[in-house]
Structure formats: structure tokens, C-alpha cells
Amino acid sequence: AVRLKSKRLKKKALLKLNGKPLILQLTNRIKRSNFSSEIIWCTSTHKSDDELEYLGKENRIKIFRGSEKDVMLRFILAANKYKAKNIVRVTGDNPFTDPNVIDLLIKKHIKNKNDYTCCNSIPIGTRSEVISLSALKRCHKLIQDPNSTEYMTWMLNRPDYFKTLDVTFPEKGINRPTISLTVDTKEDYRCVSKIYNHFKEKLPSLTKIIAWLDTKPILLTKLTKKRINKTISKKINCKFKDDF
User: In three state form, how does the secondary structure of the chain look?
Assistant: First the structure.
């Protein structure tokens, strides 16, 4: 999921990390997943996202453009077009999304026949989530406000409606949920750039990145944030039509 109409940090998906746009660095990283079949930039039809389409075509990346506000519908239509039964959702401002986590989640998701599979034990900005298309369609029918579906995590992680699984990653070293490696602000971008500039083209595993961060206490402090999900969920309508 990627767009350029971001308010806090304009065109953040195109900001350079070690000489390449963030969204391309992210794409190259998740290409290391062994079990994902295709990578698609799922963006909006707003003219501001034309630039993303041009960049994607230049780099032979598949693009799907759909509703600007109803992100869930955008994913549903993209999945229909590419005949996907399951979707791995990755957010376009998370350049450290871990391909090993993606593969673990896909295995767990398929083995347990889940509707929704996630991993909240690892740093913010390195996570992904696997969603069955059938569950996504059910969720879209249930949701009160489709224009809030940018935050579909809170809508899908509902064990009262769906078969969900929150996986704890088996490698303890990366179970650091208070670290944030996403890019939401200029300060985030400066911190993330320092990591990319250190490792250059050879961005290693998340384990090695965190081990290096542990040797940089000032940088690590800047990246350690306690974000409370309730704060965000209060601002949006995540309720289903039959919620009381």
C-alpha cells in the first residue's frame, strides 16, 4: 500500500535511502521472500500518484490503482485482478519490512487456514500481515466506514469475527516491539537514513540491524517509541455494522 498524498512527510515513498527511492528499497528487500508470488504497488487513482506509476513502470513493477480512501476495496480489486487467494499486506513507508517474517507468516497462515495472520512482537515498521481474500471481503461488508480502511489492521484483528493468529517470532533478538523503523516524520527519515548509509547496498537481516542499533544508544533512543493503538483507533471508525 503506497501513496504520495501524505500529510506529515510529503512524498515520503520517493525520499532517497542510499541513493534510491524508499519504495524501491522496500521492494528490493521484500523480493527476498521465498513464498510470495508477486509484488504489486497498490496505489490510488489520485493524480498525485501518477509519479508512482511512472516509477513502477520504469522498474518493471506491477501497479494497481484504485480508491483513494477505501483502501480495503483497493486491495480486494487488486486481488481479484491478480487472482490472489491470500494477500501479504506491506505498508509503503516501512523500508525494513522483513522477508523472513513474511515467509513465517505465510507458512502459519496456510497451515492453520487463518483469515488473518500478523506478528506484533517485532519492531514497528518491519511487520507485515497475511489476509485471506474471503475474510477481506467479509470485513469490507461489515465495516461501518469504508473510508477508514487505511487502518484495516484494527478491523481484521478481530478474533470475534475472524480466525486470527498473532505470531511471536521465534528469534528472540528481534522481538523488540517498542522500536519504530517506519518513516512518518522528518526525524524518522533522518534516523532510517543513518541505518541505510551505514549498511549501504548490503542491508542485512533484521537481527543484525537491531544488533548494530544496540551499539548506537542515541539513535536507538530516537527510534524507541511507545505507540498506543488505542490512541489511533479513537480517531477512526473501526466498528462493524453490528457492533454495539
Answer: CCCCCCCCCCCHHHCEECCEEHHHHHHHHHCCCCCCCCCEEEEECCHHHHHHHHHHHHCCCEEEEECCCCHHHHHHHHHHHCCCCEEEECCCCCCCCCHHHHHHHHHHHHHHCCCEEECCCCCECCCCEEEEHHHHHHHHHHECCHHHHHHHHHHHCCCCCCCEEECCCCCHHHCCCCEECCCCCHHHHHHHHHHHHHHCCCCCCHHHHHHHHCCCHHHHHHHECCCCHHHHHCCCCCCECCCC
The CA distance from 93 to 85, in Å, is 25
> What are 142-171's pLDDT values in tens digits?
888 888 888 888 889 999 999 999 999 998
CA dist., res. 69 & res. 191, Å (int): 29
Asked whether 182 and 134 are in contact (CB, 8 A), the reply is no
Is the distance from CB of 142 to CB of 134 less than 8 angstroms? Answer: no
Q: Do 101 and 166 form a contact (C-beta atoms < 8 A)?
A: no
| CA gap 14, 41 in Å, rounded | 13
Buried b or exposed e, range 167-201, using 16+ CB within 10 angstroms:
bebeeeebebbebbbbbbeeebbebbbebbeeeee
pLDDT digits (tens, 9 = 90+) for 15-63: 999 999 999 999 999 999 999 999 999 999 999 999 999 999 999 999 9
Residue 107's identity, in one-letter code, is K
How many CB atoms neighbour CB 149 within 10 A?
Answer: 26
